[in-house]
Every structure is written in C-alpha cells, then in structure tokens.
Design goal:
With 385 residues, the chain is an alpha/beta fold. The protein is 33% helix and 27% strand. The chain folds into two domains: 2-129 and 334-363, NAD(P)-binding Rossmann-like Domain (Rossmann fold), CATH 3.40.50.720; 133-327 and 366-382, Dihydrodipicolinate Reductase, domain 2 (2-Layer Sandwich). It has 14 helices and 18 strands. Strands 7, 8, 9, 10, 11, 12, 15, 16 and 18 form a nine-stranded mixed sheet that branches. Strand 10 (202-206) and strand 11 form a beta hairpin.
Length: 385
C-alpha cells in the first residue's frame, strides 16, 4: 500500500509512525505546506518508508496530481480544508479519510456522497479518536439493542506536565478556539438544537489523574453522524461533553467578549485584519516547548431496549502518552485510529463506497483489537437505563 498523509503536525506524525509499523504499507508520502516540517516527520517517524513533499490544499489540481498514485489520502490538516481535500481525492480517484469536521463541516461533507459512489471510492469523515473511536464504541454498544434511546459521548483528559506558561494545548489551537466559541449542537427530542457553550455541566469520575470532573456541551463531529446512523433504531438524544481546562475556558471567554475571536476583518491603520487571525498567530507563538504528560479517556453510554427490556451499556477507552516515540495521549488516540482504519481498508476489512460515518463501516471488534495491540485499554459495563 502507498498512503498519502496530508499534514505533518501533532496528529500527522502519529499517523505516519503507526503506518510505518504496518507490513502492508510500503510507502508513505508526508505532505505539508511546510516541507521542512514534512521532512522532519518523515525522517523521525517514517522508519525509512516515508518521503516528504510540498502540498498546498488551496491548489486542488496540483494536490490531485500528487495524490494520483496513492490508494488513500489521510487528511490531518485543519478541518476547514476537508471539502477541498475531498475534491482533490475525487479528482485523483482515490479513497479519503480525515479526523473530523466539528459538526457543520461534517454535515457538508456528506453532500459529496454521490460523487464518491460514482467513482466507487470510500470517504470516512471523523476517523480519529473523538470522533472515530467514540463512533465505533457507540455502534458496538447499540448493536445488541433493538431500540436506541440515547447516545452520550464524554471526552475527559488531564495533563500533569509542569509548563512555563499558564496554558497548554494538546491539539490544534484553531480547533480549540472553534470548540470554545461555536455553539454546541444537542440532538434532543429527535431534533437538532443549539446549546450555550459549555452548558449543562455533568459530573464524571475517571481514573487518576483525571479524577472527579465536570463535563460540558461542546461542538463536535459525533453530532454530525450518530443521530442519522441510528435514526432507524429510534434514537432521541445524542450529545458530546468534554472537560476543558478552566483557565483556558476563562481566557477564551474573555477574549471572545473583547472581540478577538471574530473572523470578520476590521480596519487597523488602513489594513484589513481578522482579529481571530491575529489571536491565532499570537497563541501559536506561545506553544509550550515541553511535551505533554497527558492521559485521555473516551466514554460512550448508550441506553435503549432489547426486546421489551430497558437496557444500558457503557464503554470507556483509556490512552496514555509515550516517550518512545514522543507522542501525547491525544496524538496517539487521534492519529493511530486513522492509520488503523487505512490499513484495515487496504486488507478489505472496511468495504463500501460513498461518504460513510465510522459507525456505519468500521467493524468494532477487529478495530478494537488493533487499538489494544498499541496499548489502549477498554472496559465495558452495564448502566441503569
């Protein structure tokens, strides 16, 4: 298999590392707008199988040309570019996978379903951790049920690293800003509804170092697919809740109130600039130099009916950071699932065409087995419906 990894950031390097360990993978193209960064990731994480190239996602024609000889493009760029990369994949006649689209982009991506079906290729949006692992856990829990009432997704994490500054980032700063400033979506009563940001706190208890926390609504890709995937089983509620660092939440809220998260350009001494662009540039200069010492837990709770009996099941995945290779828990449980799905697809274990959600096409048990081989742990238990 020859695979194309687009984006050589924190998640992209985890994807490259995992792909390089698969015997089925003979070549990995690592592409980025910053070719030097792509070269570094190829060298450090590619185990001799990877080579770097320059790629500009804004140039669909050139990107399609680069993609031509690969079987799948694994999109690890900022989610805003998902549609552009999908169109390049269509032009190159290859398969496509990405890490998520924060609900609104995910919804737009399904408009290309007919185009991918026409060329007989598969596109899977949201094949990371959350979304991705969470979606497949939801399928595993819902499969035995005749009716599904609710799917509740929780994302919990902690980082014990001591940083020089007050704020640390475990993934894309741009995505974090969007998650903290865009209205969350809650599927409730069979309808989609916008909720206030970080509203309806819910207590959760997880193993140390996470412990007792509060989880709140946040915009996320799971809401873009789970309600539709389980509509035939009658699902009435789906939500995603997360525990963000209170310091980060307070900082972003203050900046938002001051207008710094606005994408609308303003005039500054005769130059039009978007406040959000300036904020992102400043925050990117403050990225901590120390590696995270984080953990992450993904928990899904599904309630419904089996026959006439009301039932409830929960599943939790746990991820740790590693020193060799130097990867955060978030990078591992986001990047590794994408790499696993690509290899499973190459083996013929994920068939199909069109734009498909992870829960629709990824077989749970083989997928979980691969994650367990990489040190991820799972537990499952019954809950009160």
């Amino acid at each position: 298999m020859k695979l194309f990894v687009l984006g050589a950031g924190l998640m992209g390097r985890a994807v490259v590392y995992d792909l390089a360990g698969a015997r089925e993978v003979r070549e990995i193209v690592v592409a980025d707008f910053d070719k030097a960064r792509a070269a570094e990731v190829a060298r450090k994480f590619g185990k001799g199988k990877a080579r770097p190239v320059f790629a500009d996602v804004r140039d669909t024609k050139h990107l399609a040309k680069l993609l031509k000889s690969s079987s799948i493009v694994l999109n690890c760029t900022q989610y805003n570019w998902n549609l552009d990369v999908m169109r390049a994949a269509l032009a190159a006649n290859i398969h496509y996978m990405d890490l998520g689209g924060l609900y609104h982009m995910t919804k737009k991506q399904f408009a290309l379903d007919k185009d991918f079906r026409r060329i007989g290729k598969l596109a899977i949006p949201g094949m990371g951790g959350a979304p991705g692992i969470t979606n497949v856990m939801a399928r595993a829990l819902a499969n035995p049920m005749d009716r599904v009432d609710a799917i509740k997704v929780f994302n919990a994490g902690a980082d014990v690293q001591k940083y020089d500054g007050p704020i640390a980032y475990s993934f894309s700063i741009a995505t974090i800003l969007d998650e903290l400033t865009m209205a969350p979506i809650h599927f409730v009563g069979g309808k989609y509804a916008a909720k206030p940001m970080l509203s309806e706190p819910e207590p959760g208890t997880f193993p140390a170092p996470i412990g007792h926390i509060q989880l709140r609504h946040s915009i996320h890709s799971e809401l873009g697919t789970l309600a539709e995937s389980f509509r035939k089983k009658g699902v009435k509620e789906v939500f995603f809740k997360i525990n963000y660092d209170p310091q980060l939440v307070a900082l972003v809220r203050n900046l938002a109130e001051a207008g710094f998260t606005s994408a609308v350009p303003i005039d500054v001494r005769g130059v039009k600039v978007a406040p959000k662009d300036v904020l992102l540039a400043l925050m990117q200069q403050k990225v901590p130099r120390k590696p995270p010492l984080d953990v992450e837990a993904l928990r899904v709770v599904v309630t419904g009916r089996a026959g006439k009996k009301r039932v409830g099941s929960a599943m939790e995945m746990w991820a740790d950071n590693t020193k060799r290779p130097l990867l955060s828990a978030v990078a591992r449980d986001t990047g590794f699932p994408l790499a696993i799905a690509a290899v499973m697809h190459g083996r013929g274990e994920i068939p199909g065409a069109g734009v498909q959600a992870p829960e629709e096409v990824v077989p749970p048990e083989p997928f979980f087995r691969e994650l367990k081989k990489r040190g991820f742990t799972f537990k499952r238990w019954n809950v009160k419906p």
